[in-house]
Amino acid sequence: MAASSRRWSPGRRKRQAWLTAGLFLFPAIALYLVFAFIPTLEVFEYSLNRWDGISPDREWVGLGNYDRLFGDRIFWEAFFNTVEWTAIIVVINVGLGVVLAAILARKIKGRIFFQTCMFIPVIQAPITTAIIWRWMYQPNGAINEGLNAIGLGFLATPWLGDLTTALPALAIAHSWSTLGLSIVIFLAGLQAVDDELYDAAKIDGATPVQAFWYITLPALRPVTAVVFVLTATAAFKAFDLIWGTTQGGPIRATEILATYMYKRGVLENNYGYGSAVAVALLVIVTLAMAVYLYMQARRDD
Amino acid sequence: MIKRHISLVVAATALSGTMAISALAQTEIEIWVGGEPGTANVYDDLAAAYMAANPDVQINVTKVGSDLFNPVLVPSLSGGEGPDVFMYGTGPGQPAAIINGGLVADLTPYYRQYGWDAMIPESIENTTSSDGRLWAVGNEVENTAMFYNRAIFDELGLDVPETWADFEATVEALIEAGYDTPIGLGAADRWPISHWQSMLFGRFASPAGVEDVMFGDGAWTEAAFVDASALLQQMTEEGYFGPNPVANGYAEIMDSFWAGDIPMTFTGPWIVPGAVQSLGDGIADYGTFQVPPMADDQAIHPTEDIGSGFYVNANSEHLDVSADILDFFFFNNDSRLMLLNNGTIPIGSLTELLPDSTLPAITADLRAQIDSHRPNGTIHAFLDTVTPASMTNVTYDGLQALMLGVMTPEQFVEAIQAEWEAAKADGAILMPGGVADN
Questions:
Q1: Which domains, ranges and CATH numbers included, belong to chain A?
Q2: What is residue A95's three-state secondary structure?
Q3: Nearest residue on chain A to B398, judged by CA atoms?
Q4: Which SS3 state, helix, strand or coil, does residue B129 take?
Q5: Which are the contacts of A36, defined by CB distance < 8 A and separation ≥ 6?
Q6: What is the bridge-based pairing of β-strands B129-130 and B137-138?
Q7: Which residues does chain B have within 8 Å of residue A135's beta carbon, measured at their own beta carbons?
Q8: CB contact under 8 A, A163 and B77
Q9: Of the candidates B97, B188, B248, which has its C-beta nearest A249's C-beta?
């Protein structure tokens, strides 16, 4: 009896639980450390050096690359482009995503077909998306031809060749390729909303718009936070679509931090400076997400 | 006793088998090539020919997209790995980092051993060597020229323009005939604009003027480069490249050109092998001409550069075999004929090869034009591939800005000069080329 109670004492049980949890977590933590955390630290270390990515010797410059970064006009152009790009994508994916999810959650005809159509772009390689939209946005591409066909030819424009339309046009293309995931997450959130609430609202005379506004949206708030974070982080680190269409052009109209980092770091063999851009991008994304989640938590309280 | 003999026989057989296997053991050489699919395929044939002559060597040719070369090649080379032989840019800017970083083998001993000096023209040797050492073998000579659709010209009664006024009249006639893009230019991809920039800079500044900047004390801000930039901007404004050249991609422009929707495009013979494969005899409907001089005091300076250089990895375990492969690919007459028949112009004299070649007529005609104007001096076809990458990015942005009319020619040349000086100060530009005598 004494031996048994010693074996199953609370302290031992706790240790056992920790050990079990540790064993299960170890592979994931080890993979994260090796493939994410340590490389991130290495990038930070590179950013403190002047290095061409080739020679074995690196010149320690401390915060010199960051000092240069703050005075770099193109970095700031890329930064503001990134903010604009992310804002457009978040607005579309959250705004349109929730509306489409609410529509698809209803028992409408062809629901599965529409859900599938919305999700197909998500499983496409980003470079495929780039090729499709590059073709669509050509001056004689599908968008302009379509506008001409329906009598809206006055709206036709060289979408990717115009300094004002190139970034929003590509942001829409990015949203097209990621919106399906937002819809799926919103649909999952809608499963948790009790149908009785809608029935009660209907009895009280609420219109579908009112039901959406007063029942659906508040119920989806926690899911909205997830969609926001996923959409924003994906937008901040987007690269393939822009590189496969405009490479940051025309001039620098679609230059975002990810493409700028690639140009400076990889194409120009300036890995130290490119790493500084990468670290700046990481800090910006982390801060933006932290602020958003903090505000969301306060609102929920 | 018998058992012992059997053991000995078995051991001897095993030993001889091992020796035979070791004799057959192959040296594996990895080669990375880039370029248009039709052009790059010839390296498969060359590798097969080398392997047939050298059964102990296995060559694996990998085609790598040009966009992937830097991000994939440089890290693998600096990690002590990567291909044994690879294509890369040449000139004073592009390869500076990999040469200075000690990632490529010095080919000077092989240059002397195989007598490559007899075949490599001086101008090409200059762009593949520095500090008296040869670092690369130029794989092909490339030019740019105006490619045009003969059927459209015939239909409109247009002749190949011989003066700048003729050229202007040709463009005007094409616009009047409904071709809103008389000259296709995929400026969205940026590098095609540099073909025009290289040609115009060379024409306005002369070969000596460009070389003075590249290797001397000249500056990109000189009046000739301003005038060249101004002409490019003016041509854009006047609709030579259509209403939205900066929105057009190179691939889409080429599709429209081959489809007969665009009458002219300024490009190079690397498009020919692919076009021959897809158009067959239809390639005869297309021709080339040299853009006429833009001013009275100008001559036609043909553009000419080497497409890329073939480098050998300094960490390759098979330096000798790699050099031998380069010798076979580019200095052996059968191989050179294979290159030529594929539409790829190998470096060096073609006198012995041309009579036996089945070079596509369009390429042969272009070659003849180049040769006839060669005495005027040749100019760079691709300034963007011989200047440092940092300057290339500034140039690309500036060329798009020029075409969109948001930058003046003066601002453009000042921007590239500033980057040029920064690259010089940074040591990103190599010293003039040429292999030392000893």
A1: 78-300 (1.10.3720.10)
A2: helix
A3: A251
A4: strand
A5: none
A6: unpaired
A7: 252
A8: no
A9: B188
Decide: helix, strand or coil at residue A86. Answer: helix
Question: Taking CB atoms and an 8 Å limit, are B246 and A249 in contact across chains?
Answer: yes
The residue among B67, B69, B70, B254 with the most chain A CBs within 10 A of its CB, best to mutate, is B70
- The backbone torsions φ and ψ at residue B305, rounded to the nearest 5 degrees and listed phi first, read -145, 170
CA distance readout (Å), B430 to A37, B348, B386: 38, 24, 10
DSSP B355: G
Q: What Cα–Cα distance (Å) separates residue B5 from each residue in A222, B9, B11, B320, B438?
A: 84, 6, 10, 44, 60
Interface test with A, best of B68, B74, B384, B406 (most A CBs within 10 A): B74
In 3D space, the residue among A213, A218, A222 whose CA is nearest the CA of residue A188 turns out to be A222
Name chain A contacts of B102, Cβ cutoff 8 Å: 55
Work out the minimum CA distance from A35 to partner chain B, whole angstroms: 17
**Chain B residues within an 8 Å CB radius of A266:** 70-71, 74
B393/A263 touch (CB, cutoff 8 Å), yes or no: yes
Q: How far is B245 from chain A (nearest CA, A)?
A: 8
Chain A contact for B97 (CB, 8 A cutoff): yes
Which two tokens mark B264? Answer: 């002219």
Please, what are the domains in chain B?
A: 27-140+305-362 (3.40.190.10), 142-304+366-425 (3.40.190.10)
This model's pTM is above 0.80: yes
ipTM over 0.85: no
Write down the H helix ranges in chain A. Answer: 2-7, 10-32, 38-46, 64-70, 73-90, 97-105, 111-119, 126-136, 142-149, 166-191, 195-203, 208-211, 217-219, 221-236, 240-245, 257-262, 271-300
Q: Are B254 and B37 in contact (CB under 8 A)?
A: no
3-state secondary structure of B183: strand
Segments of B14-113 assigned E as strands: 27-33, 57-63, 85-88
Tens-binned pLDDT, residue by residue, of chain B (438 aa)? 445 555 545 555 444 444 444 444 589 999 999 876 667 888 999 999 999 999 999 999 998 876 777 778 888 888 888 999 999 888 767 788 888 888 999 999 999 999 998 888 777 888 888 888 999 998 888 899 999 999 999 999 999 999 999 999 999 999 999 999 999 999 999 999 999 999 999 999 999 999 899 888 899 999 999 999 999 999 999 999 999 999 999 999 999 999 999 999 999 988 888 888 888 889 999 999 999 999 888 999 999 888 788 999 999 999 999 999 999 999 999 999 998 888 788 888 787 888 888 888 898 889 889 888 988 988 989 898 888 888 999 999 999 999 999 999 999 999 999 999 998 888 777 666 677 776
Could you give the CA distance from residue B81 to residue A7 in angstroms, rounded to a whole number?
A: 55
A interface with B, Cβ–Cβ below 8 Å: 52-55, 134-135, 137-139, 158-163, 243, 246-247, 249-252, 262-263, 266-270
Measured distance CA(A264)–CA(A257) in Å, rounded: 10
Number of CB pairs < 8 Å for A and B?
83
Stated as kind and residue range, the H or E segment containing B133 is strand B133-134
Closest CA–CA distance from residue B210 to any residue of chain A (Å) = 23
Cβ–Cβ under 8 Å, residues A114 and A183: no
Residue A176 · residue A163 · CB < 8 Å = no
User: Are B249 and A134 a contacting pair, CB within 8 Å?
Assistant: yes
